[in-house]
User: Fold this.
Amino acid sequence: MRTSRKTPILSLACVVATAVLMLACNKGDDGNPLGSEGACYGDNWAEFYMDELQAFSDATVAYSADPTAENCSRYTAAGNDYLDALETVYQCVPTASRAQIEQAIKEAKEGLEETCQ
Assistant:
C-alpha cells in the first residue's frame, strides 16, 4: 500500500522540477505579462510559491514518516495549495511550455485526490 502512495509524491516532484526549470530559465523577460509588481515578481517567480512549497515539503516528510489519515489530509491540502500557487504564476510561463506544465499540474492534482483513498 505504501508503494501506491509514492506515485503522487513522484508526480508532484516532477511538477516541482519542471516548474523550477521553466521559471528559472526565463530570466530577463521584458514581456512579463503581470509586470514587476504582479504575481511574476519580476524575474523571481519562485518567490510567489516558496511558502506553499515549504509547507508541502514539510507535509510530505510528515506523511512519509507517519502515514496516518490526518497526515494524509495535511499532505493533500498542502499539495493542492502548492499546485494552486503554481497555477497563479502559470501566465508567466512561456507559451510553448504551458501545455506541459498544465498537464503536469492536472495529473498531480488527480494523484493527490487518490492519495488518501
